From TrEMBL:
Cellular component per GO, a single term: nucleolus
Protein name (database record): Reticulocalbin-2
Hydrolase recorded as keyword: no
Organism this protein belongs to: Dipodomys ordii (Ord's kangaroo rat)
GO molecular function, one term: calcium ion binding
Gene that specifies this protein: Rcn2
Extent of the signal sequence: 1-28
Length: 320
């Protein structure tokens, strides 16, 4: 049965959809970098997974741990020259990101497929997310600001769901569900991601995103002498990271680099960090001996997904 969302249901749904990101961003950042100092143990606690995974990591004996780590080092060394370069580390970390994103999507698919028929319908998605089927009128705005914000987000999810559905069947296959959850990983969703971003940010409809549109609703305090720090950071990102042709606006491809998670950049930064910390002889690459010398650092880095790869034979098995 399809239900219109009542006020109580909407309140819960709004909290589910809007608060998770906001809470995670501030609290996680503070725990991860207290007073600006990186906490490696937080990485292990947060990213090894549930407590059972942490317990399993602790149980792994030193000999077996080193054996599996050596197997992973061998896999990272794609040209088999005995050294890990920045490029090899970056590629490995990106592969790890994608692998775990796909694994998570596959697990979610099973949870969302309520009748176990091998597809996830829009109703099943709603039931998993909100415990009921929510249906909004596309053309009727809601008076309450939070409820209207939720309506807009819900309609965007619906459009992305429909775009991921390539064969127009009632539900999404596993491959289509992955495209819905991770459109940045699927080529046929790229145009949709760009258009969705333009609809949200391109206020004057010229097909580009200007710096003003990039900054959103920000308006400088007329009594302030300069912009706040976060605005200066955002302006720097716009100029130096995204506006590649320096024309003062983001074209669709430049926009894509902003709205899609830049795993390549994150992986590159981590690779540079690891070599900077572990390269004992200054040759800008890591030998197996250098990695093993700094084993604890390597196991609290994205190169091993904070140690989780030691428990996933996809990474340390010989046939990878």
């Amino acid at each position: 049965m399809r239900l219109d969302p009542g006020p109580a249901a909407l309140a819960v749904a709004v909290m589910l959809l809007l608060c998770a990101a906001a809470a995670g961003a501030g609290q996680a950042e503070e725990l991860h970098y207290p007073q600006g100092e990186h906490r490696a143990d937080y990485d292990r606690e947060a990213l090894l997974g549930v407590q059972e995974d942490v317990d399993e990591y602790v149980k792994l004996g030193p000999e077996e741990q080193q054996k599996r780590l050596q197997a992973i080092i061998k896999k990272i060394d794609s040209d088999s020259d005995g050294f890990l370069t920045e490029g090899e580390l970056s590629q490995w970390i990106q592969m790890s990101f994608k692998h775990y994103a796909m694994q998570e999507a596959k697990q979610q698919f099973v949870e969302y497929d309520k009748n176990s028929d091998g597809t996830v319908t829009w109703d099943e998605y709603n039931i998993q997310m909100y415990d009921r089927v929510i249906d909004f009128d596309d053309n009727t705005a809601l008076d309450d600001a939070e409820e209207e914000s939720f309506r807009q987000l819900h309609l965007k999810d619906k459009k992305r769901f429909e775009k991921a559905n390539q064969d127009s069947s009632p539900g999404l296959s596993l491959e289509e569900f992955i495209a819905f959850e991770h459109p940045e990983e699927v080529d046929y969703m790229t145009e949709f991601v760009i258009q969705e971003a333009l609809e949200e940010h391109d206020k004057n409809g010229d097909g580009f995103v200007s710096l003003e549109e990039f900054l959103g609703d920000y308006r400088r305090d007329p009594t302030a002498n300069e912009d706040p720090e976060w605005i200066l950071v955002e302006k720097d990102r716009f100029v130096n990271d995204y506006d590649k042709d320096s024309d003062g606006r983001l074209d669709p491809q430049e926009l894509l680099s902003w709205v899609v998670p830049n795993n390549q950049g994150i992986a590159q930064e981590e690779a540079v960090h690891l070599i900077g910390e572990m390269d004992l002889n200054g040759d800008k690459k890591l030998s197996a001996e250098e990695v093993l010398e700094s084993q604890d650092l390597f196991l609290t880095s994205e190169a091993t997904d904070y140690g989780r790869q030691l428990h996933d034979d996809y990474f340390y098995h010989d046939e990878l």
